Amino acid sequence: MCENCASSPSGKIFSEKDNSEVSKLIEKYRSKKGFLIPLLQDIQSVFGYVPQEACGMVARELDIYPSEIYGILTFYSQFYMEPRGKHIIRVCQGTACHVMGGREILEFLSDELGIEDGESTDDGMFFLERVACLGCCGMAPVVMIDEDFHGRCSIGNLRKLVEEYRSKD
Amino acid sequence: MSENKKNRILICSGTSGVSAGCGKVRSRFEEELRNRGIESDWEIVSVGDRGLFRDVLVDIMDSRGRVSYEYVSPEDVSGIAESHLVGGGLFNERLAGDDYKNFFEKQTRIVLSNCGEIDPDKIDEYIERQGYAALKKALDSSPEEVIEEIKDSGLRGRGGAGFLAGLKWEFTRNASGSEKYVVCNADEGDPGAFMDRSILEGDPHSVIEGMAIAGYAAGAGEGFIYCRAEYPLAIKKLKKAISLAEKEGFLGDNILSSGFSFRLNIKEGAGAFVCGEETALLASIEGRRGMPVPRPPFPAVEGLWGKPTLINNVETLANVRHIILNGAKWFSSMGSGDSKGTKVFALAGKVKNTGLVEVPMGTTLRDLIFGPGGGMAERKSEFKGVQIGGPSGGCLPEDLLDTSIDYESLNATGAIMGSGGMIVMDTGSCMVDIAKFFLDFTVAESCGKCVPCRVGLKRMQEVVELITYGKGTDSHIDFLRDMGNTIKNTALCGLGNTAPSPVLTTLRYFDDEYRAHIDRRSCPSLVCIDLLNFEVNEELCKKCGKCLPVCPSDAISWRKKEFARIDKDKCIKCRACIVECPFKAIE
């Protein structure tokens, strides 16, 4: 076990409750085949990301090298190793959206929010992410904020939308 | 449909429907029925997406027949209730138009026949439409007979490579070992392809039935559906469908008293395009990084946890029940040459009707795009090319529009059938930029295991980028061709082998565009921003002022009867004005 996995790099305290949540999940998957990815997915659905403390526990309890866990977390794009902003903005970069101006939309949002793909704003309000295809190509270009789809986006209406989210909270 | 059924209101509620706000439309309908006291006469059914993007589609079925409404917003519902449900007339404002009819009439819908017609959460509706009848029929025959039927039908894999499905089934059956698996590849990662998702959301039982039949034929007792995590609704529908099928005895132990047992599990992907490659997919199910391994051994011999494994894609499996029910002859009567049956395409881009189109193999590209597709989206736009097969496919020009859609003809052009993404492009799309777009994608998604894909694609991306910056040279073209062909021949898996195709096909068919970027340092389609000045060409400007309202940064000044002007300090180079200008006056 490496020191990194045992300590709490995010500075947050990994509580008893967090510990027991992770333990419960570990027990659920202990004897199952091919458990590692679903286990990490479940951990992420509890915390919103996969905390290093949880990785340490998984490695210890299930006798896996931490490097193997790290390998999986960094290989698959759906895993996050840090907490994300409150509102998740997904900008579709599928082919149809690209043809309809999706790249300009992403560049605009990146400038407007001052963050790059995969980053959160300093105030913890937004997390920006490019996605390969949301699959509603008929409404291109598409942006998804949390669970809501916004089709036929333009820079003008996105600027308003971001303002709305900012003022809502 | 049986007599005692109520009148039905079908609301398309797949991901496309959800994205357009079907939930609000449904609750407005519920409210209207309640307020008007006619709840008991009508049944509201949330069906999967029918395949045409028209925001929310609503179909009303009563004794008068069936009427389709398109672009239905929550505000329209009271009008529909007033005129149609109560009044016995029609709500003309949202009546589906000729394009809608044209879109569906010009298709041959077999795989999609249930999508948008039944409630995927109700197994009875599927059973009423001959659901699980194919499984019964298969269980009454021997596994060998089932395999023969699939082989005779000529069904080929719909996921991209086009390998004969029946042969795969046979290889798995003949492989030694008692423990075998069936895997459904639902890791539909191609940007611009969404047919598998629509099938899983709208008709999940057809895939489950196909898998059970495949399990019986191949001698497998367990199956896995590997579905993209980006498809939460499809996963939800599948889970529900599996539990219903178990309850009805179509899955589980001793299915329909035949002695055959089959269990089905869902594995959620975690976001990696390469997991669509079968060996990478198996690694991912096993809980490892999804990296391909060289074949042979093929999964049919040594697959999941080292056991023989049959892997088919969603659309392939959804075809199975139709073949078993209607016979191999019926299936092979559709299509051309060695490509039998139908294929579903996801049509999008600058085309009038975007959505899922199912046509017999052998249909020409032109008949598809200008038939169900309805031609170009806007009258002013001019067809330039069509991109087929996503990041593994190619861009074809107008001269090749009469190419027949079958595996061999498409391969000959340098494109591939792929999973069936089809993006129509007009003169506003730059082919060099499209090539760069796909390279950006494949570079990001390369798993990094083999050198040609990891390093070669990166070098190609850098060079194409230089060309879009106006820094291209003649030698770059030769480099792209050489490197592209090298990667094609030496990469480890299908992702790498096909990743250069978008570059190679655009070089082959749109050479003049590369030349313009290199020789004249200009982008004829006005896309590559480093080659644009964002200046108004006064010879072309008609002083119409259309550019003014679309500018998000107030960089444009215009007054009636005056040329528009762009303030370069304010301009953020978003191209909104270029897209808007009907006269191509902004350069």
Overall description:
The complex is a heterodimer of chains A (169) and B (587). Chain A has 169 residues and is of the alpha+beta class. Chain A is 49% helix and 12% strand. Chain A has helices spanning 3-6, 16-29, 36-47, 52-62, 66-75, 95-99, 102-113, 155-168; strands at 87-92, 119-120, 126-131, 143-145, 148-150. In chain A, a hairpin with a 5-residue loop joins strand 2 and strand 3 (126-131). The longest helix of chain A has 14 residues, at 16-29. The radius of gyration of chain A is 19 Å and the shape is elongated. In chain A, 39% of the residues are buried. Chain B has 587 residues and is of the alpha/beta class. In chain B, 40% of the residues lie in helices and 14% in strands. In chain B, the strands form five sheets. A five-stranded mixed β-sheet of chain B has the order 12-11-15-13-14. Chain B has a four-stranded mixed β-sheet with strand order 2-1-3-4. Chain B has a four-stranded parallel β-sheet with strand order 7-6-5-8, with helices on both faces. In chain B, a hairpin with a 5-residue loop joins strand 11 and strand 12. The termini of chain B are far apart. The chains are: A alpha+beta (169), B alpha/beta (587). Chains A and B meet through helix 3, helix 5, helix 6, helix 7 and helix 8 of A and helix 1, strand 11, strand 15 and helix 17 of B.
